[in-house]
Amino acid sequence: MRAIIIAAGRGSRLQHHTDERPKCMVRVGERSILDHQLEAYRAHGVDDLHIIRGYLAERLVVPGATYHHNARWPENNILQSLFCAEEAIEGPLLISYSDIVFGPPVVKAALSTEHDITLVIDRQWHRAYQGRHDHPVEQAELARVDQGLVRRVGKHVGPEGALGEFIGLTYLSERGAHQLREAFARVRQRLDLDAIFRNQRTFQKAYLCDLFEELIDQGVSIGAAPIDGGWREIDTVEDLHAVNAGWQSQDTPA
User: Fold this and answer.
1) What is the pLDDT of residues 124-135, one digit of tens each?
2) Phi-psi region of 169 (alpha: psi -120 to 50; beta: other; left: phi over 0)
3) What's the sign of the alpha-carbon dihedral 60, 85, 50, 232?
4) Is residue 248 over pLDDT 60?
5) The domain spanning residue 227 has which CATH number?
6) Is residue 97 part of a domain?
7) Is 40 exposed, middle or buried (0-12, 13-18, 19+ CB in 10 A)?
8) Do 13 and 235 meet the contact criterion of CB atoms below 8 Å apart?
9) In Å, what is the CA distance from 196 to each residue of 6, 175, 186, 191, 227?
10) The domain containing residue 115 runs over which residues?
11) What distance in Å separates the CA atoms of residue 42 and residue 26, rounded to the nearest whole number?
12) Cα–Cα distance measured from residue 77 to residue 154, given in angstroms and rounded to the nearest whole number
């Protein structure tokens, strides 16, 4: 099975930790963030790895992986970065942000779905935000869910009525991958990169969640795979210290 890992950005909020390495190569416990992801993937037979590189690309090396280069990583955002690997968006596959650690149970939740597009949603998201100052709740990609379907998702949603936080892990079936590519193509045809797309963001600076909402508005069903913890985002130095301080095993964040 295939996985695409979006790993082009620098991760400037990790300060000196990314001076000489990409964000996903920062160590959590005894291994890098990326190593934790790869082990969780391999536990479920995910071994067709595609990695989108940008910042310090030559230092992000995974034997057997296929690389895609985002030459404009300082200017764009996660949606444009993902589509630097457009030809690899063929389902079934998983797509993940590169700054999250999770264990095999989280991958299992993503794969245990009947939907063509499924987002992993953490219902216990608020626990990670206790004492978290450098990445406040306002920056969480929260999701409203009704009858197992995502109705709204993104940083604009807010805590009220939200089931939980989209962790940055998505499953796409063959049909779901086609729907995602087709939606992106339609937006690309009608908008310049500097035109406003959704939620006051330009198409160039759009998040993946913006495209998910575009699909929802077009009547495409997007499922929710709920989890209760078992993952962490490492976006800031504060996050890195918190995860390492609470580390209890090599596989799963505390």
Assistant:
1) 999 999 989 999
2) beta
3) positive
4) no
5) 3.90.550.10
6) yes
7) buried
8) yes
9) 23, 28, 15, 8, 33
10) 2-245
11) 20
12) 14
Task: Collect all residues with Cβ–Cβ distance below 8 Å to 71 and sequence separation of at least 6.
Answer: 54
pLDDT in tens, 64-74: 999 999 999 99
Alpha-carbon distances, residue 204 vs 74, 83, 183, 192 (angstroms): 11, 11, 15, 8
Mean pLDDT calculated for residue range 139-157: 98
Please tell me the pTM assigned to this model.
0.95
Name the amino acid, one letter, at 162: A
Neighbours of 62 (CB within 10 A): 15
Q: Could you tell me if residue 110 is inside a domain?
A: yes
| C-alpha–C-alpha distance, residues 208 and 64, integer Å | 26
28 Cβ contact partners less than 8 Å away, ≥ 6 residues apart:
36, 101, 234, 240, 243, 244, 247, 253
53 vs 43: CA distance, rounded Å: 24
For the chain, how many structural domains are there in total?
1
250 falls within a domain: no
Q: Is residue 253 part of a domain?
A: no
Neighbours of 13 (CB within 10 A): 18
Specify the DSSP class assigned to residue 56: B
Other C-beta atoms closer than 10 Å to the C-beta of 196 total 12
Mean pLDDT (the chain, rounded): 95
Residues 85, 4, 173, 146: what is their CA dihedral angle, to the nearest 10 degrees? -110
